[in-house]
Batch of 2 targets.
Target 1
Amino acid sequence: MNRLLLSIGVFAVIFIAAPLVIVVPMSFSNARSLQFPPPGYWLGYYQAYFTDMRWLRPTWNSIIIASGTTVLTMTLVVPATFALVRHRFAGKSFADLMLLMPLAVPHIVMAVGYYSFLGKLGIVQTHLGVIVAHTCLTVPIAFLVLSANLKGFDRTLERAAISLGASPWRTFIHITLPILKPGLIVSALFTFVQSFDETVVAIFISGRDAATLPRKMFDSIRQEADPVIAVVSTLLFLLVLAGIVAPPLWKALRTRMKAPALSSGDFQS
Amino acid sequence: MTSYLQLTGISKTYGTFAALSKVDLAVDKGEFITFLGPSGSGKTTTLMIIAGFEKASTGDVLIDGGSITAMAPHERNIGIVFQNYGLFPHKRAIENVYFPLQMRGAARAEGLRKAAAMLDLVGLKDLGSRYPKELSGGQQQRVALARALVFEPSLLLLDEPLGALDKNLREQMQIEIKRIQRALGVTTVFVTHDQSEAMSMSDRIVVFDKGRIEQAATPLDIYHRPQTKFVAGFVGESNLIEAVVTDAGSRLATSPALGEIEYAPSETAAPGKPVMLMIRPEHIRLSRRPIEGRRNAAMKIETIVNYGDNALVIGNSSGVPMRVRVLGADVVILKEGDDCHISWMPDAVFPITA
Amino acid sequence: MQASITRLTERPTLWPWLLLTPLALYLAIFFVVPLVDVVVMSFTEPKPTLSNYTHVLTGALYQRVFINTFATALLVTVVCLVVGYPLAYLMTRVSPRSAMLILTLVTMSFWTSFLVRTYAWMVLLGDSGPIIALVRALGVQDPPHLLFTRFSSTLAMVHILAPYMIMNIYSVMRKIDPVLIRSAQSLGAKSGSLFRHVYLPLTAPGIANGSVLVFVICLGFYVTPVLLGSPREQMIAGLIGHQIDEFLAFGLGSAMAVVLLLITLTILTIYHRRFGLDKLWG
């Protein structure tokens, strides 16, 4: 029983890891087609990626769109989360449910809707159009992350600040916001990544001018299997790797550096 | 002389539930006053109304003769130490203490100097650069105290601040808080459900029950002259004997079970009035034979609870359950089931008329 | 903010509405209206009739696509469960360090764009890829094409969706008190019945969560089936895209989208009644 389990586990680990690992050597391959193991290695496709506007423009478009989406989503979600977590009012559970609805609707359905709707507004194939659509899709994730953080917030801290003479507004600025900062950052990061990765809606509405990186990748996989795709994949994979491995490392480093400061007395000096 | 802190006719209702009804209280400047009561008795609600976090349904709160009822909580200049301290996790200890000064527009250097001096006063001279999570419970408590005092508040409120500490640390902090409060002379309201804490720290104790003040008096008065049956039962251990006053002049009351009992001087006892006669267990003596010059009664010992240095003997005297405190050394000769005598002096019998 | 902070227990105020209104309006305009648009188009494009629905619900092509989609989603869910459950269990049994490593791997897979993962499977399963090479090395003369088949798209979808299943099951398994298992053992439960009567029921919420999530995402999956699947065995999402992109048949595409939406919402509503929707992505 246990041996069977172990072998299934090992198999599962390989199954999950293999596709992630294989894109890295592929990006250095000098083959024109999908050949593995590569017949030889070079950096040519990296050079191609960093000089080819057909790849750089979508990358840039994606960064603009994901940034815009993050700003818009957070602007809308932060106040709403405060309302939903901290207040009781009629229709609250309905509102809670509605904020999650965009997660429940398949993206292909939204893509059809946006294709026609954004067309009517005249913002199909623009950055604005994609931002408007992505904001709806990222609201639930941002809300879920933020509300979990806000629910864990100890409101005694706000009362303490007020009793110490801080007005409600200054309490928000000096206490609530700084303490919620990690939650806000995580929420914003999730939003950014979700928008950056979103493919289906982008395929249908970003068009030529606002084509996002996933759309470009989709097209190139579908049509020609451009080897540059391996480079993009590797870069994206490394970004994820950095994003997941860096925070614990950074934390470990910081605690190690802070340790001696603890014993060294006065804060003022 | 007018009092420093005054509560006049404070009531608080939630829907139809009255959390507080008609609370009146006057506190002198520099006084250390304790709100004592079981949970839900209204003591914390009263504290929150003074702090401004709850609005009273009726009534007024005055400090130094001026009403603060209409003031926002952050304008009240009242220092509060919360149950879980409420230290800001993203600020160092000294920044926590500096915060109220910062909010009052103090210059940074001057403010930090004052904060450091206050940390010194509470005994945390060298720990200012630590974050709250790097401090022990007792140290966090001291930072919270320093923070609530550094801006020279007109009032200090302590909301069960010792609840989270273990017993030894708690006793140490009781002494600390008292010392600091005396040194600064700040008027202090302390909320607790722990009677020994209330006894040891307070100038005066206010006992709350069911949204009312049962009694406000010095610790000794609360203990020896409780005004109500609730106070007698809540503070310390007591024997309560039902009786009716028969002769107010010679201070005699008659209990259906124990007969005529003489009681200590009382202003409220009147002939024909039903009373509760309270005798503290440590005021009763246990003996084999009746003792002359004392009021005696026979008792059969039912249970002996040993505490080491003393013991509580629980017995039955003509159908009335009685508790007697005896010294540890005397316990060895006692057995459960023994017949013996209990006796007391008339001064130990306090009549409760309310 | 004033009201919210200072009057914790006071009567309701206008604040929550003020804070909520911008988002509510935004979603009403940019989320609900486009959805309604889809519904409207399904009845009115190209002419106001019900013919789109009669096509979608009775046409042989569409029926085959629906059945194919359901079968694929079911298969992917089951395989995810078969792979994910033992792995999640393994994570609770190995050292914390190894568990951390596996978790990091799963998380990385989760966060890696599924286009990247789809592309990786193209390389792995391609005619000049390592798996075919291995098969050749084993002496098979004429190995079958793996790419652009039902097999390749199913495998890639399992890979892409497995992290949802693993993380859901693992988060439930991790919370199971080992004392519970030990006490069941001390009461004489053999490993088989221990699993059936104790462990399985305790992990059921994780299984339900993971399965619903994987199944629902799979039903509406567009990218991977389109890129890796057989053109002859489309799934609903692919066909919807096809109608819109190639034929500009908005009416038919919308009608299919509405049917897909209704199926998805039905499943999620049943789930919501029993467990609460907010738990699903918890």
Target 2
Amino acid sequence: MADSVPKEIPLNSVQVEALVVMKIVKACSATFPTTATGSIVGMDVNGTLQITNCFPFPTADVAASDSHPNDHMAASNLAAAAPRSKANVTYQNEMIKCLREVNVDANNVGWYTSANMGNFINTSLIENQFYYQKEVNERTVALVHDVSRSSQGALSLRAFRLSPSFMAAFKESKFTTENMQKTKLTYKDVLVELPIIVHNSHLLTSFLHQLPAELPKKELEFPASLQELTADQPPIPLYPNLESLDLSIDPYLEKTCDQLLDSIETHYTELNNFQYFQRQLAREQTKVTAWKTKRTAENATRVAQKLAPLPEDEWERLFKLPTEPSRLEGMLNARQVEQYSRQVDGFTASITSKMFAVKSNLLPDSS
Amino acid sequence: MAVGTDSFLHLARPLAPSALGVQPTTAPLNVIIQPQAVFSILDHAVRRDIRDTQSTRVIGALLGVRSEDGMEVEVRNCFAIPHTENEDQVEVDVEYQKNMLALQLKANPREVLLGWYTTSLELNSFSALIQNFFASPETGTFPHPAVHLTVSTEAGKEIEARAYISAPVGVNAERAAESCLFIPVPYEIRYGEAEKSGLELISGAKDSENRAAPVVSDIEGLERAVDQTLDLLERVSEYVNSVLDEDREPSNALGQFLMNALSLAPKVDPQDIERDFNNHIQDVLVVSYLANTIRTQIDLSQRLATATLTMGGSDALAATGGEGGGDKGQRGGQRGGKRGGGGRGGGQQREPREPREPNE
């Protein structure tokens, strides 16, 4: 698997089978807004990771908690941690063993998760991906399917990997300022996004041509009456999706704003933590300095009295300097904020064009 | 939302010799197939093993949900089952089926076994044998009928699908296991709102040579949708024009329909439109502006937090050379005044005017 593959070619793109897209969409929307996770299998060919199948992880008793709407957060957390849990590793291996018998690529290449308006960058994602990239197979990706965004327009499916420098840092869990200065690790280096290509098999292409696709080119019979026309509407093609012409953007913007506010909140918490640490540090250091001066003075008197001087480095035992809080949370938060603002940019771009279109349509002479 | 089929006549089917107490259902049945199940079947057909088995078809189990009255089944999922088949015998890996079913049900507790599929349209005595296996009380769907879905996967031909349920036929007892009557039932392929965007993307790839399509951003999708709409409008206006020029035959129904559609256009005062438009666009732009400002702030704070800054002056007055002074930067630059330190809380300018800790 990973070892037999020459390491020189880094993964540069992800090719997803249509089957996988559909399965992920289904699994994620079925459990929405609870997070859904699952495993993906496939293989990599010359730097392109081909994902050919996937299966969901069992969610532990989520069905039982459905009656309590507030529980979905707990369930989400549970599901988000699923890829790392021991039971699921067994499940995954079992499943892959079974899939191998029916000629499916029996090679785990990562996992997928669902997201809601881009809120996927969190410790859970990082830990899962770290787990996969560290042990199972180095060449693994995390596929993120954004359920809410997909309902608004184009399908949102993205592939992420952790960058090597972040992997190294995460392994030692060294997220101190000093270390980050040394490695020049910034929040932009946490995740590497890979472009996704959707691929269809020949059979599927053949099948898709049978689904309502293009409008008939030939002349159609005239309908006899209006009723007939409304009752028997011509099939709407799947592509391109005319629903992206919908004007209502406000719910999405609102949701994103909420999430941005949450992020700012997190940022402040982090900030306060850090300031608390620095005040603590300053206080300790004042104490240490005071102690040192005292000790020097004492030693001076002791020398004057011809006594052996007391050791000067005892302060290390007496005072415990506070440990620096990890920068990780802040970094992820920054990355998340970046993600949100990109998302807002995307919304703005499409909504402004749509709105100008509507305006010039309604007021043809104003512009 | 649905790809329907022809009309069907529901026949009352003969009853199976029923087990004690349990009555098999005889209600008509409607089969709904979700696209991912079809995709999965096609994928399986592509991956069939052609080396050591003479059979050209593959089989697998269908999973999904059944409505409460049993009138409607929805196929949501399926998995492949290895089997070998030759002239006089068929072997289905029952053990595998059992294991896989257990695994699948663990992940999707709400789904049940519905029946099985195969990838050829042909029905033969092996089909009956397998069908009876899937319909039996111990290993199958009894008292509900087992659904048998056949999908033709011959290269170069249309992909056809048929759905059946079965009933026993009156042959002698020894042959009962390998004979049954397949009754066709109506089916439709139905996709929900959530799958639509996925299908859009997938069908985007169907006309390209390498059968692949990149995931597009919202704005590209919009562009295509607009193009498409323009084409359609063009077509309609072309038709209307040619009717006006008496080149083409007019149609009352179409005219009525267009009239109805056009009357949907709202009648609003231009000033109102102008005002609403400006308000809304301002809202949107403000959100965008704020989001980007926040991003910049946080970016800045992250940079300051980790910037390697050389020590400038010792205390309050920072070196003014931009990156000149400062320690850990306190992630300070953002959110003016949040530092709370009297007036020194360095607003948003780049020079972090923070008090330093001497030995950091």
